[in-house]
Amino acid sequence: MERIKKEIKERVMNVVNKVNDAENYETSWNEKGLPESKNKINIKRGSLSRAQGARFELKVREALETQKWIIDKWTNNVNLEENKIVKVKPKFNPFTKTMVMNSGGFPDFIAFKKTSGNDYKIIGVEVKMNGILSKIEKEKCKWYLKNKIFSEILIAKKGEKRGEIEYTNFEEKYGIK
Q1: Could you say which architecture CATH assigns to the domain 68-174?
Q2: What order do you get walking across the sheet with 70-73 strand by strand?
Q3: What's the pLDDT tens digit per position in 28-70?
């Protein structure tokens, strides 16, 4: 039998210890049939963060509706390689054996408001608790504005005061190159 390298042995023993520690770790099997252990504290933190984000998203939607915007969930995304808009695919939940429509559209909302006569202003609204977009999200915003899908894209984030919502115009903050 070949001698096992020390790093590999340590990595295997670390996985074995996590699998055996059911009190602190939850273990599942990935597509390749390998065990993956997640810290239960991080699982709880993730679910709380998702719930907090969903509540903030709902609050932003209600705030825009009070400003006479008509809001709908945007269920499309941009495929930057193909340079086109694609529909977000629903995901399969193996536990409930159902297809779940994921809110994976970017941006989160499409909003429109009648301006004058038969003219409408159409904007995209991305809700971020901290107001920071990733590099890919910035590229997608630039694509939407360059292709005139939206007249502007607003980034909604939590304000300084409790319950306050701040809106940042993407074009003013990042510009278009």
Answers
A1: 3-Layer(aba) Sandwich (3.40)
A2: 70-73, 109-114, 120-127, 152-158, 165-169
A3: 777 777 767 777 777 778 788 888 888 999 999 999 999 999 9
